[in-house]
Amino acid sequence: MDEIRLNVSLLRRKVPNLTSAARQVGLRPATVSNLCTGKIPIGRAEVRTLVALASLADCSLDNLIIRGEKTEMIETKIKTLDLFAPLAKGGTVGLVARPGMGQLVVLAEVLYRLKMDGYKTIFLMPEGEHQGLMELIENAEIITSNIKDSYEKMATLGGDQDIIFIADRTHVITGDIQKLQDNLEGIGIDSVTTFLVDLTGEVVDEDLPYGPLETLWQFDADLSARHCYPAVNPLSSTSTVLEGSHLDQEHFTIQQKALKLLRRYRELRSLVSVSGIDRIATSELQTYQRGERLEAYLTQPFYVAEPLTKKPGQAVTLQETLSDVNKILNGAVDSTEVSELEYIGKL
């Protein structure tokens, strides 16, 4: 069976204000967002939903749905990202977080790692004063001041150069990001992976704050409060890379088992925080303890944070992550103290 996915780039171009447009035709923005990122597979979408989206984009269903194309993954060697919400190469990534949850550190770390892999990194400076930007500036090779300048720099680099581009949400609201992506496509440049960030935290309270996305990283207040970094929520972050058979079977199977464990662990953790661990049924204790260990393992020291944490940064390949997570799921580290799994690389 052919792989099928939503043509997110077409939706982004044709319907920049997708939240309002979706509501006007009776679609839930959350449903549209989940279809865009692949959390809801196209095969499970209602026909009326797809027809409504095609109508909004003024295109046919054949143009709305892409068949037979595989979304390529960019491996960051950051465990929780590669396992649960992989970067879609050439796509648009949206970060949803309030200030202080560590989103800028994650972005700086991604820039640092991908720059080492040969990507050109471009950062469009936001207007005004914002804390935490220095690490981004230090790890971006090219700093631009406006969309026009950004376009010219990318056009000069050409379509053979993989590019990472970071911009603030204000450029989404004005429509500048859509125009930039249209212009780049017009000259045959499709090698730009765009990161969108909101420095105000308003995105947390909005549906589809960035429009259609290939990858969504949702940051978690509880993880951040407990200093479990990167504080990216595995249960609400997702990517088009996860659609259909884009993942190999091993990745898909382990990822689904890990999500199931973490989902139940979070439910049990809420009970423990109120009533204590004695309230957990004996049959559930193993689930709680393994979830606790998996959550600890998913923390990771970053290279850009070494001066602050005094811990050397760690890079873990996807295959190493899959192997380690599988061991945790199967009980191989049940006798290991939770503290021994915090802020390590591979097991």
UniProtKB/TrEMBL annotation:
Which intervals hold domain ATP synthase A/B type C-terminal? Answer: 246-310
**Would you say which domain of life the source belongs to?**
Bacteria
- From the Swiss-Prot or TrEMBL record, state where the protein is found: Membrane
Stored InterPro entries = ATP-synt_VA_C, ATPase_alpha/beta_chains, ATPase_F1/V1_b/a_C, P-loop_NTPase
Pfam families cross-referenced by the UniProt entry: ATP-synt_VA_C
Record keywords: Nucleotide-binding included? yes
**Record field: transmembrane:** none
| Keyword vocabulary terms for this entry | ATP synthesis, ATP-binding, CF(1), Ion transport, Membrane, Nucleotide-binding, Translocase, Transport
Task: Give Gene Ontology CC terms.
Answer: proton-transporting ATP synthase complex
> Molecular function (GO) terms listed?
ATP binding; proton-transporting ATP synthase activity, rotational mechanism
Which family does this protein fall into?
Answer: Belongs to the ATPase alpha/beta chains family.
What name does the UniProt record give this protein? ATP synthase A/B type C-terminal domain-containing protein
Organism listed in the record = Oceanobacillus piezotolerans
